[in-house]
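Dear colleagues,

For the upcoming journal club I promised to circulate an example of a predicted protein-ligand complex. I picked one with magnesium ion because it came up in last month's discussion. The inputs are reproduced below in full, followed by the predicted structure.
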Amino acid sequence: DLDEPLQKTFCFPIVKDSISQDIDHILETQSALAIDLGGTNLRVAIVSMRGKIVKKYTQPNPKKYEDRMQLMLKMCTDATRDAVSLNCRVLGVGVSTGGRVNPQEGVVLHSTKLIEEWSSVDLRTPIADVLQLPVWVDNDGNCAALAEKKFGHGKGVENFVTVITGTGIGGGIIHQNELVHGSTFCAAELGHIMVSLEGPQCSCGSRGCIEAYASGMALQKEAKRLHDEDRLNVDGMDMKLTEPITAAHLINAAKLGNCEADAVLNKASTALGVGIVNMLHIVNPSLVILSGILASLYQAPVQHIISERALVSAKNIKVVTSELEEPALLGAASMVLDYATRR
Ligand code: ADP
Ligand code: BMX
Ligand code: MG
Ligand code: CA
Ligand code: ZN
């Protein structure tokens, strides 16, 4: 066996290997705490520098401000405790949330009915006080865009748009490598692009928004309506009476030949497709990334509607489905990882 100094002198590959192991170690251990507050779920995760979710905690997002803050802080302190035993050094906290967010202040300015009691909420101060860590906050769709840019299909893409389907529809715009926030932090609220003058009521108070046609909640509403009228169930559909009706039932029914369910999905995809054509004509991205639970359902129809209804110069824009497990959470983490490691 060579002793250490000799190894360094004669066996360069071994030395190089140990350096890359050190870098590996840093990339594995330096991590962020990520929080995502959505219309249905509250998630917290420990995320490594490489974008790996080391551990994730999910709870229903409480309806009341006090309960929500309390649960969020409890989940965070539990996660920081677990981080120690998982050998993760937490550098800071990144928060993704529905609503208009001022990222400079770390404040949620305003929310739709999707998250109640969630306007004029300072998130930075209480989280920083409890955890004694720096805190970054942005809108969930914007976070999803950051995640695509750092870890996903948006890597190296200068101009792209992302649309994320959950309870609602979130959006993020990367223009010349930067997020677009707008003059009052209301840019990229892509769920509220309107595609009809009448159209279904949206949780924002308006109507005809793509969120009111194509979100998880919109499909769930339609599924419930068909179910109540006894028109959802078809042969081969195994539905327990106790389980709550979701968008999944509607999709399943359509697959098994339920024409009405199929018509609802068609309308939803068309509304989303037309909404995305509008986005193409405003920001002219080179790529559209769909994420969230319904992304794969919408990818092909949206691509088709673009080919039919976009201006010639925007017809060939590609629509892809995200490969990221949790874009909003990963984007929240990326705000920490990018700032905390900046020299
Ligand atoms: P949020 O960020 O809004 O809290 P999530 O991204 O966690 O939401 O997604 C929750 C939404 O997805 C709910 O509207 C729920 O009904 C819907 N959903 C859950 N499971 C499925 C599924 N298997 N197929 C389609 N929709 C689903
Ligand atoms: C709503 C709106 C958006 C958000 C989107 C997706 C609020 C509280 N939310 O359109 O800001 O990006 O929902 O949210 O105003 P999710 O609940 O589907 O993740
Ligand atoms: Mg969400
Ligand atoms: Ca947004
Ligand atoms: Zn709306």
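Two points we might discuss: The two ends are 39 Å apart (CA to CA). Residues 172 and 252 are 29 Å apart (CA to CA).

See you all on Thursday,
B. R.
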